[in-house]
Specification:
The chain is an alpha/beta fold. Helix content is 34%, strand content 16%. The chain contains 12 helices and 12 strands. Helix 1 runs parallel beside helix 12 and helix 5 packs across helix 7. 38% of the residues are buried. Bound molecules: 2-keto-D-gluconic acid.
């Protein structure tokens, strides 16, 4: 294929170097994030761009999409589409593709890591040893996790992968989600508040976006048993972050394990200063293996939509 024949693709935000290299080999690439004058770039070069690559945590603003009249596909490095206006993309015949399936295990593993780290004070205990405090006495007791009650908010692929792992810890598993999944051997609660009231650990595994924004708020934290834990591997937007901070400060709940935040990469100092909170920099899917698989999916998803014979967005009679 000659340079002229390569489809034009815009990379919105930085992705892995190895993915960028492959994109540059296989497509005619522009990098939005590198442009000095982004508006001028879009005005001069937006027409003719057929594919857009973005990250799940970044999405894309409609103001950018409006400058890409020929766009056929948005290939998301991730599974979250909460930062993309799906009504706009549907209306404008733009396909949105995600890296479904390949990051499920890693994100579920991260939920379990946060669950264990939070309940067993793993990070604090590590610090205790490194600071030489063990020489002065033993580390305080922590809380058992095996056999406890786990509530999962959101029973999609990731929620189910968490449930399978938690079953290995003999946890009793309940869930709340839009629809009951009768084929699953877990107890269903139609109402998140009722679920929250009856669990020792609440894991957030629901998609982000307007439907779930702020659903985990003061009323949920008030309903949760004392000493219960909240784990979030989904989106910061699902939790009202200020309500979480207040609930932790007031000891309405016992702790939190968080991989995602309301305004990443900014993490409130209140959370940073609390011993009973374990913090991760949104790395649920960040393993070599999974990021490689995600990269391959991003490329395949672009080719699926761009290698069609006609580069027109619309089929002709
Ligand atoms: C990625 C994500 O970390 O899948 C998603 O939606 O948020 C994550 O897996 C992110 O897209 C890459 O930065």
């Amino acid at each position: 294929m000659t340079q002229q024949q390569k489809s034009r693709v815009l990379i919105l935000a930085p992705v892995m170097d190895s993915l960028t290299e492959k994109l540059e080999q296989q497509f005619s690439v522009d990098k939005y994030f590198d442009q000095q004058d982004k508006q001028a770039f879009l005005a001069a070069h937006g027409k003719g761009i057929l594919g857009l690559v973005t990250r799940g945590d970044v999405g894309v603003d409609n103001s950018i999409l409006e400058c890409l009249p020929d766009l056929k596909v948005i290939s998301v490095f991730g599974v979250g589409t909460d930062a993309i206006d799906l009504a706009y993309t549907a209306k404008n015949n733009i396909q949105v593709e995600i890296t479904s399936g390949v990051l499920t295990d890693d994100v579920a593993d991260m939920a379990m890591a946060l669950l264990l780290a939070t309940s067993r004070n793993v990070c604090q205990a590590d610090k205790f040893v490194r600071e030489g405090k063990w020489l002065e006495g033993g580390f305080p007791l922590s809380s058992k996790i095996s056999g406890k009650r786990l509530g999962i908010f959101g029973m999609g692929q990731i929620g189910q992968a968490i449930a399978r792992r938690a079953s290995g810890f003999d946890m009793s598993i309940s869930y709340a989600s839009n629809n009951e999944k009768p084929e699953l051997p877990y107890r269903f609660f139609p109402d998140i508040k009722h679920l929250a009231a009856q669990v020792d650990v609440l894991v957030i595994a629901v998609s982000g976006g307007p439907q779930s924004a702020g659903v985990i708020n003061k009323s949920i934290f008030d309903a949760m048993p004392d000493n219960s834990l909240v784990i979030n591997i989904s989106r910061g937007s699902v939790i009202n972050q200020q309500d979480l901070i207040t609930a932790l400060q007031n000891k309405n709940i016992g702790g939190a394990g968080l991989d995602v935040f309301a305004d990443e990469p900014r993490v409130p100092h209140e959370l940073i200063s609390m011993d009973n909170v374990v913090l991760q920099p949104h790395v649920g899917s960040a393993t070599h293996e999974t990021r490689q698989a995600m990269s391959e999916k991003v490329l395949a998803n672009l080719h699926k939509r761009l290698d069609e014979k006609s580069s027109s967005k619309f089929s002709v009679l």
